[in-house]
Amino acid sequence: MASPGARVRLLPPAVFLVPLGAAVALDRLAGLPRFVLPSFGLVLATVLGLAGAGLLLWAGQTLLSRGTTVIPWHAVERLVTTGPFARSRNPIYVGDALIYLGLAGWAGSWTALLLLPPILWVMTRWVIRREEAYLGQRFGTAYEAYAVRVRRWVWGAGRGPTRGPGRAAGGGGAGPGRAGRGGAGGGGGGGGAAGGPGERYWGAQTQRSLEHFDIGRPAFVWGRPVIAALGLLKATAAEVNAQLGELDLDPDILAALVGAAREVQEGRLDPEFPLVVFQTGSGTQTNMNANEVIAGRANELTGRRRGGREPVHPNDHVNRGQSSNDVIPSVVHLAVVDRIEHALYPALERLRDTLADAAVRFEPIVMVGRTHLQDAAPIRLGHAVGSWVTQLDHAMAGLRRALLPIYGLAIGGTAVGTGLNAHPDFRARVAQRLAEQTGMPFHHAGDLPAALASRDDLVTLSGALRTVAIALYKIANDVRWLASGPRAGLGELRIPSNEPGSSIMPGKVNPTQAEALRMVVARVVGNDATVAFAGAQGAFQLHVDTPVIAHALLESIALLADGVASFDTHCARGLEADEGRIAAHVAQDLMLVTALAPHLGYDQAAAIAHRALTDDLSLRDAAIATGALTGAEYDGWVDPAAMAGPLRGARASGLPDD
Predict the structure, then answer these.
(1) Rounded to 5 degrees, what angle do the CA atoms 139, 140, 142 make?
(2) H-assigned helices in 204-323
(3) What secondary structure letter does DSSP report for 277?
(4) Given its phi and psi angles, is residue 501 left (phi above 0), alpha (psi -120 to 50 degrees) or beta?
């Protein structure tokens, strides 16, 4: 038998390049950018290395049982500490090290056979953690999405390794079905992983939601309004709980908790909110996402590791006196009020003022009125535009009425509206503080069980948004028709030429802003149908379709605000009247005959209009030809300006009449 210090010649690199190449190829098929070997590739290389090592061990012990050359274990130790593992951030060396460890075991004794599997297991887990942190930091969400695809591809939906996207990206929290470092499995969940710049603040509940609700990403990930409202509500709740003696935290720890929530409110932690709308109908995962992120960040601010559950606990401290059942409806109300007050109302008011100014400017112009898309009695162009202003006034008034119940907040109702586990004064104080911070008349809902059990107030609000949308549709459609032509259509309004023409017809000016606004309206009407259907899904003490209602409402508000602003800026402000075209149409308007009916009777006036049409005569010539009136009488009775009514510019502009 050879001496203990003897060496053997290791196999060439081709031995380990085969499994390593297979791992890289599979990773490329799964969609990871560039040739980088992430956790799945490492696991595959490990499995192949273990299988190869086992086969080689069996062959070595069988064929060389009478005596073999033994590599001293101190050589293996040098290999691990100074060789490939020392450069483990480059995945190529990971496969190298694993195969070399297998070969070292093959050349060893039965002792190597017993020690090799645990050594490989420990070393592989260490390497995988380092690689995941590196890849998550380098590739971010691309690597997270890749990890989800790999798990589904290899393990099937709902099963597989416990490392999810957040963990793969150096994220906080254990994978599905496993407790985090700070607590047991089940509802509590765990905090983030320790160490490394790429870890996340979220914990196990968020991680499980990522695993189990990968639906509609990225279109249906919560946006800024909901995240900001979560931060505002959690910061306010922590401050109120502290005042009420409900939080037993040192002042610096409490300041860290509130500070972390304010960071969420300000948008500094938005990447930590990756969850989608389609989840538990009460929004539990989103509430816990906020709790975990705020706790994780607060713990970091106190000098502890990022994530975790000490000294700030996501449930005991951040969620104190709260339930997802009262938090999420309150968050929705906060977000909806904010977006209507600060985005939609200003946009509508600017468009309203633009149209009111146009109504005054266009009032002297008499145009052909139209009913059923047919010529009708004359009207002033300013009055027609003024009717759009009134439509908007009424729609906005309805929206303001519908917003009144939304100022009532469910916070303090906790699980079923009874306020269980919350201080009796919690609800009123939180609502008061929110009102002070936002400048909006928030108050606690008078009937908390109703505030949790139904979303009727949001259904009503959605209907008001639909009414606003329908008014806008009418305005956009009228502009589109009046600008049609410009020569073969009505051509009475000229719209701004924002685009260079159609793709094939040079110089063509299309009513693009009106069409865009009409499509916004179509989406809002569809969202209203979603809200109405989802609003019917309350059951006993809880409404269970709240997230989709929130998303549909906030999308409608955002689309309306943007669509109205665009239509105002790029169309309404540039509307001009083609007075020559309008006057020509008025001169040809057969319905001017309406002014003759009181003098000649309805039947004779109708006969004059019919003769003018069939004989292609002007209405004046046809009337005189009947012998029923003279030219002077016609000119005195038929005055389009008088028929269109008096000027009322002050009324159209919203000012009181003189």
Answers:
(1) 70
(2) 204-212, 224-243, 251-266, 284-301
(3) S
(4) left
User: For residue 423, what are its two tokens?
Assistant: 């201080």
How far CA 115 is from CA of 70, 111, 121, 459, in Å, comes to 14, 6, 10, 66
Q: Enter the DSSP assignment of 276.
A: B
Q: Give SS3 for 290.
A: helix
Whether residue 307 contacts residue 216, with contact meaning beta carbons closer than 8 Å, is answered with no
Q: How many residues belong to the chain?
A: 658
The 10 Å Cβ neighbour count of residue 134 is 21
* Residue 383 annotated among the catalytic residues of the structure: no
Residue 200, amino acid: R
Contact 325, 416 (CB under 8 A): yes
Q: Pick left, alpha or beta for residue 133 (phi over 0 → left; psi -120 to 50 → alpha; otherwise beta).
A: alpha
Q: What is the C-alpha to C-alpha distance for residues 528 and 466, in angstroms, rounded to an integer? A: 7
The residues near 42 (Cβ < 8 Å, ≥ 6 apart) are 23, 91, 94, 124, 127, 128, 131
pLDDT at 187 over 90: no
CA 289: distance to chain centroid? 16
What is d(CA 193, CA 200) in angstroms, rounded to the nearest whole number? 8
DSSP letter for each residue of 487-554: SSS---EE----SSB-SSSBT----HHHHHHHHHHHHHHHHHHHHHHHHT-EETTEES-HHHHHHHHH
DSSP 72: -
Q: Rg for the chain (alpha carbons), in Å?
A: 37
Q: Please, what is the average pLDDT of the chain? A: 80
Match 């729609």 to its residue by tokens.
395
Least reliable range by pLDDT among 115-124, 249-258, 313-322: 115-124
Torsion sign (Cα): 364, 370, 374, 378: negative
pTM of the full predicted structure? 0.72
Is 317 in contact with 255 (CB distance < 8 Å)?
Answer: no
Q: Burial-class residue 451 by CB neighbours within 10 Å (0-12, 13-18, 19+).
A: buried
DSSP 316: I
Distances (CA, A) of 623 to 103, 378, 585: 112, 18, 19
- The residues facing 374 across adjacent strands are 371
Does residue 181 carry a pLDDT above 50?
no
Q: What angle do CA 522, 523, 524 make, to 5 degrees?
A: 95
From 3, 65, 74, 372, the catalytic residue: 372
Of 394, 502, 610, 618, the catalytic one is 502
Q: Are strands 493-494 and 576-577 parallel, antiparallel or unpaired?
A: antiparallel
Residue type, 640: P
Q: Give residue 273's identity as a one-letter amino acid code.
A: F
* pLDDT at position 148 over 70: no
DSSP 414: T
Say if CB 331 and CB 229 are below 8 A apart. Answer: yes
Are 573 and 358 a contacting pair, CB within 8 Å? Answer: no
* Tens digits of residue pLDDT in 516-542: 999 999 999 999 999 999 999 999 999
431, exposed or middle or buried, with CB in 10 Å at 0-12, 13-18, 19+? buried
- Hey, how many other C-beta atoms are within 10 angstroms of the C-beta on 555? 18
Are 369 and 427 contacting, i.e. CB atoms less than 8 angstroms apart?
Answer: no
Q: Examine the residue annotation and report whether 502 is marked as an active-site residue of this protein.
A: yes
Query: Is the backbone of residue 616 left (phi > 0), alpha (psi -120 to 50) or beta?
Result: left
Spell out the alpha helix ranges (H) of 140-223: 141-155, 165-168, 204-212
Strands 408-409 and 443-444 come out as parallel
